[in-house]
Amino acid sequence: MAVTDKVVGGLMLVTAVVVFSYYTIWTLFTPFLPPSSPLHDLFPAREWAVRLPALLMLAGLTAIGSFVGLVMIKSARKKSAKSKVKAA
């Protein structure tokens, strides 16, 4: 179990470093390159450097809000079921 956790953690770390490096190069270094540079072909259009994180943040906040809402609904149902049992 511990080896598997270390492998998963290592893969997550490598993925985070690769994504961070790609995004950093895309947003900070490509604007200073000439438009004819072949490096521009490796990256999407620059407006997506703002749109993509905004969409990811919106999706993440929606997922978190949905999870919290579902937990609150389930908690309220349990509480009402307990009060009905006590009243009966």
Strand content: under 5%
**In angstroms, what is the radius of gyration?**
23 Å
Count, helices? 2
> What does the largest sheet look like?
none
Order of helices and strands: HH
Q: Helix fraction?
A: over 70%
Distance N to C terminus:
47 Å
Please provide the count of β strands. Answer: 0
Task: Note poorly predicted spans.
Answer: none
Average pLDDT taken over every residue = 92
Helix/strand structural class = mainly alpha
Tell me about this structure:
The chain contains two helices and no strands. It has 88 residues and is an all-alpha fold. The longest helix is centred in the last third of the chain and has 40 residues, at 48-87.
Q: Can you lay out the helices and strands and say which pair or pack?
A:
Elements: H1 2-29, H2 48-87
Give short descriptive properties of this protein.
88 residues, mainly alpha, elongated
Structure summary:
The N and C termini lie far apart (47 Å). The chain has helices at 2-29, 48-87. The chain has two helices and no strands.
